[in-house]
Amino acid sequence: MTETAQDTTREAVAETVPAQTIEPPQDLSWRQLIASALVCILLLAAGAYILSGYLHALAWALVFAVALWPLHQRFRCRYHASGELASALFTAFVGLVILTPLALLAADALMELRQLVDYARMAGESGLPVPDAVTHLPYAGPWIAQWWTENLSHAGWARDLLKQFNTASTRELGAMVGANAVRRTLLFIMCLLSLFFLFLYGESVVAQSRIVSRRLFGARGEAVARQMIASVRGTLNGLVLVAVGEGLVMTATYLVTHTPHPILLGALTTFAAMIPFAAAFAIGLAAVVAAVSVGAAAAAIIVVVGAVVVFLADHFVRPKLIGSATNMPFIWVLLGILGGVERFELLGLFLGPAIMAALVSLWRDLSAPQADN
After folding, report:
1. Domain limits at 233?
2. Are residues 223 and 168 in the same domain?
3. pLDDT band with cut points at 50, 70 and 90 for residue 90
4. 310: buried, middle or exposed (CB in 10 Å: 19+, 13-18, 0-12)?
5. pTM, full prediction
């Protein structure tokens, strides 16, 4: 059969079959919209459920990437470095900044553990002598010294105390601590890995985020996002960098005054200084340690230097850095920091001010005179 005959046959068959017109269903647009919204919500919920164990690490990676992105771009432009090299260097820098204090603390803790083991061996053999600092305590010193002599100075008290411990509970506690350490190590590795890819593909992520923000929220959404990014960077400068400066000054003070465990106390002061008004408690603890171990003069030096450092940092340096970057009153930044720490722990140092910056930006847009137009 030729091609002409086949075409004629197809046309004849088509004429015999009645044409069926398919009318589009009514209100197809809003049905598609609802279906798309439901699918998006389900996908987002499923993604959040799958990544729930790693959201904390991803959030920290995002905070570091947002805070260090300008330095990353300047480094690439100045040294003409490739994206892979710059991303690897900045990721390694973040890892070293976090791991170096932890390594110093671990080394100090091992030294203290060795001394504690020797002290425990001596205590098991001959008991614990009454420390001189206890006998010189005002008011309660003689009473504490007498109780110490009756309960801790004789040999064998340590063995009696160890017999009271439950071996099974101790093993469970050790397993729990080990599992927690492995979990946190995995989260730290995932944070650094996510940070590397954020640095590597940061330009495309920024471009895509701008497109999505404009499509969903318009130009105002992009402005709010910029304000949140500025708040994260301002918080990093005003909290973390200032806290590191306070910690370095106080660590030097602890070293000069010969306070025991200066590195440990300096790290504690740095960590506490990230939270407004919390550095005073760490400095007070260091002053107590210095008063007991060294003397009242060393404690007085620590208190005076700490008061000056905290006063300058909390009243001048920190409000200037955070307020100029976020362009909002410091009281809102302070409330965001305190509320964020209460709800999200250390991550709330950055999430709290970012959320407050978004709220303040929206309030200013809505309360502006041209908003009615």
Report:
1. 219-373
2. no
3. very high
4. buried
5. 0.72
